[in-house]
Amino acid sequence: MTDFINSVAARVYRPAEDVRETLSAHGVQLYTPRSQAEPLRLKRIVFSGYKDPDSRPPSIPFEFEWQLRSGINVLGSQRNSAGKTSVLEICRWMLTGRDKHSSGGLDPRVRAMVRNVRLEFALGPDDVLIELDSSTSVAPGRLEIRGATRDFDAETMSTVVADLMLDRLRLPTMSQFTRAPRSSRGSTVEQSWPLYSGALVVGPTHLSAVLGSVDTEAANLLQMYMALPWFNTLQQARAALGAIRQEVGDRQRAAEAEQEARAAETARIEAELAAAEQALHTFPAEQDLLNDLRQGVDEATEANRLLMLLEQQLAAAQSDAAAAETVDTEAQHELVAVREHTQASTYFRALRPTACPRCDQPIGDERLTTEMAAHSCSVCTRTNDPVEDPTALPRAEAAAVETKQRVVAAVGRVERLTQRVQEAHRRRAQLQQNVQALSSRGDVAERQVRIVEVERLRGRLAERADAAARANASPDNDPDVQVLQAAVDVAGELVRESAVGLFEELNDRIVSLGQRFGVSELTRTGLNRAAHLPAWKGETRYNFRQLSEGDRLRLKVAVVVALLKTAEHHGLGHHPGLLLVDSPGAQEVGYAPLAEMLTALDSVATALDLQILVATARLEEAIEAVGQHRVRQPNPPDAPLW
Amino acid sequence: MVPTLGKTTTREQDGVRLLMLLRHACDDKMPDDAPPTAVAAIAGEQRLQAMDFWLRNPDYLAEELLDFAQAGGDSTSIADARRILYDEEPDLRTYPMLRYRHGAWERLDESLSLLTTYGLAKSIRRGEAQQGRRDFFLLEAGRAAADELPTRVPAVSWYAERAVLVRRVASSEGGTALKLRQKLQAEYLDTEWHDHIASIRPRVLARLEELGE
C-alpha cells in the first residue's frame, strides 16, 4: 500500500503525506484484498395478483409458485408469452429492489397484475426472505434475515436490498465520472448493485454487452467481478480525476469568460492607471517637497536673522544719529554762543568806557589816552590784555561743521539701514509666505491620494492578471490533477500486471465452455480488460457483435461461468454463482444446440455448485436435456405459467 | 570765554540780553528819581530775572504766548509761538538757568557792569524802605547801541525781536507775579534747586499740534 503512495509521490515530486491526503480527499481508497462472495441461491418464488388489474374490482386472480433447487432449473413452456421472462424479471426485481433496468425490466402490464411477491433465498449460510405488497404505489415490504427484519417501500427497497447484497457479495460501490453522449459535462455517479446485478442475467435483450446488459459498463463489471487487485482504486482515481479535471476546466473556462467579459474593463483600468501614473508624476516627490520646505524654512530663518541684525544695526544707528544730533545741537549751540559772545565782545570793546561800574566816576581823557598808548585799562589801569581766545570761533565753527557732517552721515546710515530693514521685512514676509504656501499646499495630501489611486488600480489589474493566469493555466498543472493522474497511471499498471495470465486462463475457459455450449467452430477468444470479446471460428475473427445472437448468448453464459471457475481457482471473485438465462436458442432453428447447451450448463452447475435458471419455450428439449424434475412447466404444457 | 560753573552764558551775551530787555521790554513809566539820561526802566530785579528766563527759554516763552492768545490776546501770538518752536532753532537759542528758592536766578552784576562802563545802562538799589529793590535804567547811549546792535552784530539780532514778545507776555506785572506764573509749569516747579530748569518743549509742541494751523 505504501508502495503505491510512494510510487505516485515519486511521479509528482510531492511528499507521500501530501499524496495520501490528496487521494483521501478525493475518495480514492487503496486496494485491500476482499474475500470471495457468498453464494446466492434462490429457494422459492411466489407471487400472486389479478390478470384483470384494470377491472374494478379485479376478478381474475392468479398465483405462481416455484420451488428451486441448486444446479440448473428450467422454466419451460410450449409457447411464447407464457410468463417465463416475467418470472425471471420478478426474481431480479426482488433481488435488486427495482422492476426496471437499463435494458429491459418487468413488463408494465405484468407489473400491474402482480400484487404480492415473496422470494426466499439463501445467502451464504443465511436464509433470506423478501416480500412486498405491491397493491398500492407505496408497495410496503420487508427483508428478513436471521430473524431481523428491515421494512421498506417502493422508494427504499433498492437501498435495503443493495446494502445486503454489497455486504455479502463483498462488492464495493464503484465511482464513475461519466458524460452524457455529445456532452462536455459529466458527473460522478456511484454505481452499485442494480448495475452489478446485470452480471446475473443473460437474455435476448442483453446481447450487446459481453457482461451485464450495458456494453459501456461491461469492462467495469468484468474487472470488478474478477476482483482484479487495484481495479477499484483505479476506478476511484479515474472518477476523481474526471471530476477534478472538469472542475479545473470549469474554473479555467470561467476565468476565460471572465477575462473576455472584463477585457474592456481591463483596458479601461489600464488607461486609468496610465492617467493616474501620469498625474502622479506631475507632483513633486515627497522628498523634493520636504527639501523645498526645509530650504524655504532655512531661507526664511536666515531672512529673519538678517532682519533682526539689520534692526539691531538700525537701532544702534538711530541711537548714534540721535547722539550725533545731540552733539551737533550742542556744537551748533556752542557756535551760536561763541558768535554771540565774540561779536558782542568786539562790539562792546569798540565802545568808549565812560564810568566806573563800581563808583560811577567818569573816566577821564588821560586814562583813555594811556589805554591806547600803554594798553592799560582805562577803568582799572591794569594791563589791557583781554583773555579772548581767537581760535574759539573757528574751533566752534569747525566743530559745528564736523558734528553736522556726523549727523548727516548718521542720518544717511539710518536711512540706508531703514531701507534695508524694509527690504528685509519684505523678503522675510515673502519667504514666510512661501513656507506657508509650501506647508499648506494641498499636493502633499493630493499626492497621497494619487498614490493610493495608482496602487488601487494596480491591485485591480493584478487581480485580473491572476484571473488571466487561471484562464491560461492547463488543468495538467493542477496539483490534484497531477496526483490523481499519477494514481490512475500507477493503479492502471498494477491492474494490468495482475490481469496478466488471468485473461489467458479466462479465455481458455471461455473457449472450452463456448464449445460445450454449442458455439460452432469456436477456436479462440480474445476477452480483454475492455470487455472486448473477439472470437475466432477456425481462423476467422469475429467481433462480438458480428456473432449470431445465439452465439453471443452462449458466450455471455460462458464468460460468467468462466469467471466463476477462475474465481474459484484463484480464491478471488465476487459473483454469487446465480445465473438467470432467458430464452437460449430462441433464435435457433434446430434441435441440437439448445440441448447441448443445457446439458453442458447442467454439468457445469453441478460441478461448480452454481444455480442456473433457464427460461425456454423449447420445453421438450429442456426436459430431455436436464430431466423432468428440473423443469417447471405449465399444466397443460401449452397453458401460461400463471 | 568759558562760562562759570552752572552758568551757560558769557558776560557779553548777558549784557546784550540785558540791553535788549531794557530797550524793548521796559516798563511803561519811568520812576521819578531816574538818572538824568535814562530813557527807559525796569523796576525790580525779579521782573528782570523773570523776563530774562523767557528770553533764554524759547519753549517757556512759546507756552506763555499760547496762554496769552487763549486768554484773549492777539492771534499772532500763536503764530509767534509756532515760529519760535519750528523756525528759530530753539535748541540753539536756549540758555538754561539754575533754579533757586525763588526760581530762576542769575547774577546780573557783571553784565550790568559792562553796560555801566560804557554808559549804556545803570541800576539803582533802593533803601530798606523799598525792600532793597533794584531798578534798572537804559541810558540814551544804551538806546542808541540797542538800536544799532542788530545791524552791527547780526548774531544777536534775534534778541531784539524776542524781547518784544517777552514784553507782550510779561505785560506790566510785577516780578513776583511773573515768577508765580513761571512756577505754574510743573517742570519748572519740580526742578531741584541748583539744577538747570528742565525744558517743556515736547509739551508745548503737542499743544501746538492740538491747536492745528
Summarize the structure.
The complex is a heterodimer of chains A (642) and B (213). Chain A has 642 residues and is of the alpha/beta class.
Can you walk through the features of this model?
- The complex is a heterodimer of chains A (642) and B (213).
- With 642 residues, chain A is of the alpha/beta class.
- Chain A has helices spanning 2-12, 16-25, 84-96, 108-113, 157-168, 193-196, 215-225, 231-261, 263-281, 286-350, 365-374, 392-440, 443-472, 479-499, 502-517, 549-570, 592-608, 619-626; strands spanning 40-50, 61-67, 71-76, 114-123, 126-133, 141-145, 148-152, 174-179, 186-191, 201-202, 522-525, 535-537, 540-542, 578-582, 611-616, 631-632.
- Chain A has 18 helices and 16 strands.
- Chain A has a 6-stranded antiparallel sheet with strand order 2-1-4-5-6-7.
- Chain B contains 10 helices and 5 strands, in the order H-E-H-H-H-E-E-H-E-E-H-H-H-H-H.
- Chain B has a 3-stranded antiparallel sheet with strand order 1-5-4. In chain B, strands 2-3 form a two-stranded antiparallel ribbon.
- Chain A binds chain B through residues 329, 332-333, 336-348, 351-358, 360, 379, 387-389, 392, and chain B through 1, 8-10, 12-13, 15-16, 89, 91-95, 112-114, 116-120, 122, 141, 145, 149, 152-156.
Which geometry of chain B do the CA atoms define? globular
Shape of chain A: rod-shaped
Q: Characterize the biggest β-sheet of chain B.
A: 3 strands, antiparallel
Helix content of chain A: 55-70%
For the record, give the distance between the C-alpha atoms at the N and C termini of chain B, rounded to a whole number.
Answer: 42 Å
Strand order of the largest sheet of chain B: 1-5-4
Secondary-structure-based class of chain A equals alpha/beta
Helix content of chain B: 40-55%
Strand tally of chain B is 5
CATH superfamily of the domain at 40-227 and 501-632 in chain A: P-loop containing nucleotide triphosphate hydrolases
In the CATH scheme, the class of the domain at 40-227 and 501-632 in chain A would be Alpha Beta
**Strand proportion of chain B:** 5-15%
The radius of gyration over CA of chain B amounts to 17 Å
Q: Regions of chain B with pLDDT < 50 over 5+ consecutive residues?
A: none
CATH architecture verdict of the domain at 40-227 and 501-632 in chain A: 3-Layer(aba) Sandwich
Euclidean distance between termini CA atoms of chain A: 55 Å
Q: Count the beta strands of chain A.
A: 16
